[in-house]
Design a protein that fits this description.
Radius of gyration: 19 Å
Distance between the termini: 47 Å
Largest sheet: 10 strands, mixed
Helix content: under 10%
Strand content: over 45%
Number of domains: 2
C-alpha cells in the first residue's frame, strides 16, 4: 500500500509554511468474523514532518510504501503530535497542539474502502484542508494565533479521479490564487490556482459534482453536473468576470 499526503489550503498568499508532525498511522481491516472484530494494522510509528504548503494542485508526498496483509480496509487512524503555521512577514511559527490527536488518533473513514490484493498496489490519499483545519483567532493583521481543528479527507486513489483546469479572466489573463472548490450538498474539497492559473483537485471519488471558482473582485462562477470517472481526469476551465 502507498499512502500519500496533500494539502487543501486557505489564503496561500499569506502563508509561508504549514507544518504537521505525524507520529503514528494505523489502518483498520474490515471484520472477517474472527473474535478480534476489526483489527488495526500498524503502518508506521516513525515521526514524519511534512510542510503542507508545498503540497497542492496535484502535488503529493509519499508517507509510506509498504506491504500489508490482504483484505479490505475502511478506516485510518492518524496520530498528530503538533501542527504549526508560519505567516509571511512574521518571524514566529505558531505551534498548535492537536486535541486528542496524540492519544486516541484522528479517525478517518476511507471513501470508498480500499481492497488490498496480493501483488497489486493500492494508494490512499490524506487530504488536509487548511482552510478549515487552522482557525485564525482575530485577523491576519491582528491575530492571537490559531486553533487547530483537523479536517482531513481519506480517499482511495486507486478508484478516484481528478478535476483540473485553468482560471482566467475575460481578457484571458491567468487569475492566480483563485479559489476553486467542489461540492455534493456540502463542500468536499478546496484548492487555489497557482501562479499560472492552474488548479487540480485529486482523489475525487467517482460521481457528479458542482464546482465553483471565485476571487476577491470577481463574481463566483459555478458549473453543475460535472462528472468524475474513476481513474480519469475531468477538465473544467473557468473564466471569471470582474464585479
Amino acid at each position: 500500500m502507498v499512502i500519500k499526503v496533500t494539502d487543501d489550503p486557505f489564503d496561500i498568499s499569506s502563508i509561508e509554511s504549514a507544518i504537521v508532525t505525524i507520529t503514528k498511522v494505523e489502518i483498520r481491516r474490515v471484520g472477517d468474523g474472527v473474535s478480534d472484530g476489526n483489527p488495526f494494522v500498524m503502518l508506521s510509528d516513525d515521526t514524519v514532518t511534512v510542510d503542507l504548503i508545498n503540497l497542492r494542485n496535484g502535488v503529493t508526498e509519499t508517507l509510506f510504501d509498504l506491504e500489508i496483509p490482504e483484505g479490505e480496509y475502511d478506516l485510518v487512524r492518524l496520530y498528530v503530535e503538533e501542527a504549526g503555521l508560519k505567516l509571511m512577514d512574521y518571524t514566529d511559527l505558531y505551534k498548535v497542539k492537536v486535541p486528542s490527536g496524540r492519544q486516541t488518533g484522528i479517525k478517518l473513514h476511507i471513501d470508498p474502502s480500499i481492497v488490498v490484493a496480493g501483488g497489486l498496489t493500492s494508494e490512499m490519499l490524506l487530504d488536509f484542508d487548511l482552510s478549515r483545519s487552522f482557525v485564525l483567532r482575530g485577523n491576519m493583521h491582528n491575530n492571537n494565533g490559531f486553533i487547530f481543528k483537523p479536517c482531513i479527507r481519506a480517499s482511495n486513489l486507486t478508484t478516484a479521479g481528478r478535476i483540473e483546469g485553468m482560471v482566467t479572466d475575460t481578457s484571458q489573463v491567468k487569475v492566480k490564487e483563485a479559489k476553486v472548490w467542489i461540492a455534493q450538498d456540502t463542500v468536499m474539497a478546496t484548492t487555489f490556482a497557482d501562479t499560472l492559473g492552474y488548479y487540480a483537485i485529486i482523489g475525487v471519488p467517482a460521481g457528479t459534482y458542482s464546482i465553483f471558482a471565485n476571487k476577491d473582485g470577481y463574481d463566483t462562477v459555478k458549473f453543475e453536473g460535472i462528472k468524475v470517472i474513476a481513474g480519469n481526469k475531468t477538465i473544467q476551465n473557468f473564466i471569471l468576470t470582474n464585479k
